[in-house]
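Fold in tokens:
===
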Amino acid sequence: MSDAEIAYLPARRLSERIRTKQLGSLEATDLFIRRIEAFDADINAVVIRDFDRAREDARERDRRVLKGDALGPLHGLPMTIKEQYHRAGLPTTFGYPELADNIPTWDSEMAAALQAAGAVIIGKTNVPLGGADFQTYNDLYGTTNNPWDLARTPGGSSGGSAAALAAGLTPLEAGSDIAGSIRNPAHFCGVYGHKPTWGIVSQRGHAAVVKHPMPDLDLVVCGPLARTPEDLALALRIVAGQSIWNSGWRLDLPAPTKTRLSDFRVAVWPNDDLAPVDDEIADRVRMVGQALRDAGAAVSEVARPDIDPRNSHETYRNLSYSVVFASVPPEEYERNRRDAERYAPDDRSDRAVSARSMVLSHADWLRADARRARLRLRWAEFFREWDILICPQMAVPAFEHDHTLPIEERTVLVNGEPQDYWRQAFWSGLVTAPCLPSTVFPTGLSSQGLPIGLQAVGGAYQDYRTIDFTRLLAEEIGGFQRPPVD
């Protein structure tokens, strides 16, 4: 097999070859290092490289194979992780230049779980400043480009993760998500990404600074990106439930029980007036719905949960902005407070809701949390009747780099008309606010030759159902496609 053929093997297959001595871990590690050195200058995905330590770790993995030791499910697998995860001896900066010397001495629980399963971490991938953008760039590490078109963004905040996967620079990745930060890059780069049910994967060690190590009751989740649904499921089994905070209970996610697409009841939500998507995106949702009908599934374009989408989106903004802006310096908080006061109390525009959410009082946060609880109950009722919801992830495919500041002045073109930049978060927040699992899956290319990914959403803790659904669907519509990198 050529280097490229090996590099694009599913992670589980590559690890299996290492465990069965068909390929050495050091050999595989050197292969991915060569690819990073050959192709990443243009993409700029793997911005922190730990090649010497990775080679030593790979040698140790090879020694264990020769000794006949018990081997983990990722034994010897070289891979990268998102920059926001602590890895002892490597910087964790969230793209902030002032944190360039912030070098933890311990591993995040995500990194620790992957390494305990046998993975070899060869480096860390780029993120937007503060992890807060649909694009991936910062003054510390520069701009990450989409391997399908270098003039376009790979998404954010796990943009480096998705770009590295699509380009064959890593076989598996660890990302994180609050506004689509796993799902948006998966859509833009044509890979798979899973946003888990909130709370099942530890956030410990996913932080720029120790003062905010694992926020209580926020919306951030940590999860995998991969090129196949099977690799998503494998990675989730490894990292879910692994936390020192959860030592008193055991996570037992339901296994998928449906073996054919005809077993599924699927609702499709192609578009919404609150956040219109490009016709090509909406048509792709309908195409998938028709493919499911053809396969024998029960499909509805009118079934919806009993929720007010605007109320849901406002609740999402209240809670997510509260988390993102919780630790800003006092002077920035004061600027945000003055900005919020400019809006009338009954102003429900996106900017007004966002401004108020940045400085939400504890009482208002509790009210938003109560609305979230009601959303979770309504969605639970919906998923008693329906197995999967298919909906867009973003309004458009990957767009050209736009670093305009302030960020609020940016727009995206939807059917040729400018749309507010942050309005796209509606589709992420629809799923994030009620803490549901969502698997983004590729559906092929747009008319411009860019990937289009959609969300497969399921009921709480039905993570393996949404992932396995995308596996079955790939048999009908296809899965990951390689970009024109090599």
